[in-house]
Design brief:
ABC transporter transmembrane region fold; 591 residues; 18 helices; Rossmann fold
Length: 591
C-alpha cells in the first residue's frame, strides 16, 4: 500500500463518502436550503443597487429623493441582514457535517483495520494507517465542512449571476458563454494531473509517517546503535521526497487556478466592455450597467473560488480513495455464516491439531508447520520446545485463528475452530506473550483489560496471584498509577507480571504461555512460576519455553523442529532417549 498507484483500479473517489453522508440527510437538506437562501440574498444586491441608481439618484424633488434613498438603503440593509443570518446558519450546519463525517470515517476505518488479520499488517505499515486516519480524514473534513459548501454556494451564485446576465444582456452573454466553454476543456485536463499528483503527495507523506512510527517505537535500539543521524537523514530524505511531490502538485494546481481566473476574467471583461458601449449608445441605463457590473464581479469571483475548490476536491478525492482502500480491505480470516455456540467447559478445553500444514503469506515457499498433529486433553499442560524458528509460536497463532492452516485443521472441545465465532474462540483463550503489551493507562485498567467488567477486588486478587500486587502498591498512586507508553515506567519483569495478572483475571479454560517468565529474574521467576502453576489448575495450558527449567513439570513435552514433531514425552523420558531434547537440556543444564 505504500507504493504510488495512480493508474490502479480504485474506488469511486468522493462517491465513497455517500454512505457516511446518508445518515445526515436532514442536515444536508437544511444546509442546502440556507446555502441557496444565502446565494439568493447575494444575487439580490445588484437588483437593489440598480433600483438605488435608477430610482434614488435621478433628478427629482429633494424631499422625495431623500425618502427614496432611505427606502433603497433600507432594502440593501435588509438584504445584508438576510445574507448574514443565512450564511451563519449554513456555516454552522456544514461545519458540523464536516466534523461529524470525518469522525464517523475515522471510526469506520479504525474499527475495520483493528479487525484485520496479521496478514494485513505484513504488507501495510502502521505509520501509513495512522497517516490516513489523521491526514486523509482531515482533508475530507475540510472539503465536506468548508470547501464543498463554498463550491456549491459559488456555483449557485455563479449560475444565478450568469442567468441574470443572459436575461438582461442576451446577445453579449451568448458570446461570453461560447468563450467559457473553451475554458472547461483544458481545466479538466489540468484537474486530472492535479488529482494524480495529490494522490502521490499523500502517499509520500504516509511513507514519512511510517518511518517516524517505526523509529519512535524503537528509540532505545536506535540510540544504542548511535543511529540517530542515519534515521534523521532517512526521515529527511522521505520528507524531501514528499515536499518535491507536493511542489509538483502545487505547481500544477497554481497553473490551473491562474488559467481559470485569467480565461474567465477575459471572457467577462469582454462582456463588460460590450455593456459600457451599450450605455454610451443609450441602449441601457446606468443602473442597468451597475447591475451588470455587480453580476460580472459575482460571476468572476464564483469562477475563481470554484477553481480553488476544484483543487481541494481533487485532493479530497485522492484522500477518499486511500481511505476507501482501507475500508475495502478484507481480512483473510472470515467469520462463519452460522457459528456454533459450544458450552463453556468446567475443567479446561481439549485441543486437537490434525495433519496441519501452514505457510506464512509472506513466505509461501517455506512451510512453518508440516503435517503437524497433536492432541491435548482437557486440563493437561503441554510444553512446546525446540530451536528458534521451529514453529512453536505459529501453533499459537493458528490456535487463536490469526491465520488459517493451508491444510488440516484445529478443533476445540471437538468443534472445528473455523465454525466458532472469533469472539467465542478468543474469549476462551488467555495468552501471556513473550513481549508483554502494556497500554498507556493505569495499572488497574491494564489488568482489567482481560475482563473489562471486573471489580477492583477481582483485579487486586489477580495481581496478588501473579505476585504483582506488592510492587503495584509501591507505585506513586498505586493501582491508579499511569504506566506510560508501552509501560516504560516498569521493569521487564513487572510488565510480565501485569500481563500474567491480566490473563489470570480473564480466567479462560485454555491458557497459552509464550515464554511467560523470560523477562523475570530468578527470584521473580520462582514466585510467578508458583502463581502460574496455581493458574494452570483446572484448565488446559500450552507453554512455549526456551528455558527448559520452566517446563520440567509439564504433563508432556513436545519437541518441534522445522515445523514437525520430532519427540514427545515427559522430561525424564526424553532426557533418557538422548535425542534433540536431551541435547538442548545438556546445553542448558551443563552450566
Amino acid at each position: 500500500m505504500t507504493q504510488d498507484k495512480p493508474n490502479a483500479a480504485q474506488p469511486q473517489s468522493l462517491r465513497g463518502l455517500l454512505p457516511f453522508l446518508q445518515p445526515y440527510l436532514l442536515q444536508i437538506i437544511l444546509a442546502l436550503l440556507f446555502l441557496v437562501l444565502a446565494a439568493a440574498s447575494t444575487l439580490l444586491f445588484p437588483v437593489a443597487l440598480r433600483s438605488l441608481i435608477d430610482g434614488g439618484l435621478l433628478p427629482q424633488d429633494k424631499g422625495a429623493q431623500v425618502m427614496a434613498m432611505r427606502v433603497h438603503f433600507l432594502e440593501l440593509f435588509g438584504v445584508a441582514v438576510a445574507l448574514g443570518l443565512f450564511s451563519a446558519i449554513r456555516f454552522y450546519l456544514v461545519s458540523w457535517l464536516g466534523e461529524r463525517v470525518a469522525a464517523d470515517l475515522r471510526n469506520a476505518v479504525y474499527g475495520h483495520v483493528v479487525k484485520q488479520s496479521p496478514e494485513f499488517f505484513e504488507t501495510t505499515q502502521t505509520g501509513e494507517v495512522l497517516s490516513r486516519l489523521s491526514g486523509d480524514t482531515t482533508l475530507v473534513q475540510t472539503v465536506v465542512g468548508s470547501s464543498l459548501s463554498m463550491g456549491l454556494r459559488n456555483l449557485v451564485m455563479g449560475a444565478g449571476a450568469l442567468m441574470m446576465l443572459v436575461w438582461t444582456n442576451p446577445y453579449v452573454m451568448i458570446q461570453v458563454l461560447g468563450m467559457l466553454v473553451l475554458v472547461v476543456i483544458p481545466a479538466v485536463w489540468f484537474g486530472r494531473r492535479v488529482r494524480r499528483l495529490s494522490r502521490a503527495s499523500q502517499d509520500r507523506v504516509a511513507d514519512a509517517s511510517a518511518i517516524a512510527a517505526e523509529v519512535l517505537n524503537a528509540i532505545p535500539v536506535v540510540q544504542s546503535y548511535t543511529a540517530e543521524a542515519r534515521e534523521s537523514a532517512r526521515f529527511g530524505a522521505s520528507t524531501e521526497n514528499a515536499f518535491q511531490t507536493s511542489v509538483r502538485r502545487i505547481s500544477s494546481r497554481s497553473v490551473l487556478v491562474a488559467f481559470i481566473i485569467i480565461a474567465t476574467s477575459a471572457a467577462l471583461l469582454f462582456g463588460l466592455y460590450q455593456g459600457t458601449q451599450a450605455v454610451m449608445r443609450g441602449d441601457i441605463s446606468a443602473g442597468h450597467l451597475g447591475q451588470t457590473v455587480m453580476y460580472v464581479i459575482i460571476l468572476a469571483g464564483a469562477f475563481a473560488v470554484l477553481g480553488e475548490v476544484y483543487g481541494d476536491l481533487l485532493r479530497a478525492a485522492g484522500a477518499t480513495e486511500r481511505l476507501m482502500e482501507l475500508l475495502s480491505a478484507r481480512s483473510a480470516i472470515s467469520e462463519p455464516a452460522q457459528p456454533v455456540r459450544p458450552s463453556w467447559p468446567q475443567a479446561g478445553s481439549a485441543v486437537a491439531f490434525s495433519d496441519m500444514t501452514f505457510h506464512y503469506p509472506s513466505r509461501p515457499a517455506q512451510a512453518a508447520l508440516s503435517h503437524f498433529s497433536l492432541n491435548v486433553r482437557a486440563g493437561e499442560t503441554v510444553a512446546l520446545v525446540g530451536p528458534s524458528g521451529a514453529g512453536k509460536s505459529t501453533v499459537f497463532l493458528l490456535l487463536l485463528r490469526f491465520y488459517d492452516p493451508t491444510q488440516g485443521g484445529i478443533t476445540l472441545d471437538g468443534v472445528p475452530i473455523a465454525q466458532l465465532s472469533l469472539q467465542d474462540l478468543r474469549s476462551r483463550i488467555g495468552i501471556v506473550p513473550q513481549d508483554p503489551v502494556i497500554f498507556s493507562t493505569s495499572a488497574l485498567e491494564n489488568i482489567r483489560y482481560g475482563l473489562p467488567g471486573a471489580t477492583e477486588a477481582q483485579v487486586h486478587a489477580a495481581a496478588k496471584a501473579a505476585f504483582a500486587d506488592e510492587f503495584i502498591r509501591e507505585l506513586p498512586e498505586g493501582y491508579n498509577t499511569f504506566l506510560g507508553e508501552r509501560g516504560v515506567r516498569l521493569s521487564g519483569g513487572q510488565r510480565q507480571r501485569i500481563a500474567i495478572a491480566r490473563a489470570m483475571l480473564k480466567n479462560p479454560p485454555l491458557l497459552l504461555l509464550d515464554e511467560a517468565t523470560s523477562a523475570l529474574d530468578a527470584e521473580s521467576e520462582r514466585m510467578v512460576q508458583a502463581a502460574l502453576e496455581s493458574a494452570m489448575r483446572n484448565r488446559t495450558t500450552l507453554v512455549i519455553a526456551h528455558r527448559l527449567s520452566t517446563v520440567q513439570k509439564a504433563d508432556r513435552i513436545v519437541v518441534i523442529d522445522h515445523g514437525q514433531i520430532v519427540e514427545e514425552d515427559s522430561h525424564d523420558t526424553l532426557v533418557a532417549a538422548n535425542g534433540m531434547y536431551a541435547r538442548l537440556a545438556a546445553l542448558q543444564f551443563a552450566g
